[in-house]
Design brief:
The chain is an alpha+beta fold. It is built from 5 helices and 11 strands. It has one domain. It has a 6-stranded mixed β-sheet.
């Protein structure tokens, strides 16, 4: 079991120029500012978007599938819980200390032989809308927390009553292969688009 924090950080830094190019091209009505302040990043802010028409400001947390370079996955993992020093901690989806308005889900990340990232897809997810829709499906924070505690020895997929595991999503426990033992809600990108909480940028 290992933690890939440093390797992921290096990949994230190499991915940034490609993402910025896409934002400039596809978010023409917005000004964007990349955040380097660690405190803000810990609050779930990688990017600040300002709408030139309304003047509204949005905080964006970038989430990239860096473990799956040159692969195309139809799903994305939303972190519900993880373990630190033997204690279950709140994952980023329901963490009230996070100020995130939107997740920028970076998928289908491709790189060439020189390890330069050449293309990717970006899907924006409205965090508040997603949590609301999950709540409507009976998948609120307290229910999922209870479920995670009841099944903490489980490893692998757990089917949820409110979701079709093939078309929508399921819970996934990484109890034996990751140090942090994360519990993730795996959701299909197509499902997120269909329920009106996500929009693909590219």
């Amino acid at each position: 079991m290992k933690s890939n924090f440093k390797a992921d950080l290096s990949k994230e830094q190499r991915l940034t120029p490609l993402l910025d190019t896409y934002y400039q091209k596809h978010l023409k009505n917005y000004e964007f500012e990349r955040v380097s302040n660690l405190k803000k990043q810990r609050q779930g802010i990688d990017l600040i978007l300002k709408d030139n028409q309304s003047g509204n400001t949005y905080f964006v947390d970038e989430k990239a599938q860096l473990d799956y370079i040159n692969e195309s996955l139809p799903t994305f993992a939303f972190e519900l819980f993880y373990t630190k020093n033997g204690m279950q901690k709140q994952g980023w989806l329901f963490d009230v200390s996070k100020k995130t308005h939107f997740y920028a889900l970076v998928t289908n990340i491709y790189s060439d032989e020189a390890d330069v990232f050449t293309s990717c897809n970006i899907t924006f997810v409205n965090r508040e809308k997603l949590i609301l829709r999950l709540h409507e499906l009976g998948l609120n924070q307290s229910f999922l927390e209870e479920l995670a505690l009841d099944h903490k020895e489980v490893h692998g997929k757990l089917v949820l009553e409110g979701l079709d595991p093939k078309k929508e999503g399921y819970l996934y426990f990484s109890s034996t292969n990751k140090v942090e033992k994360p519990v993730n809600l795996i959701l299909r990108l197509e499902f997120l688009n269909r329920i009106g909480v996500a929009k693909r940028l590219i």
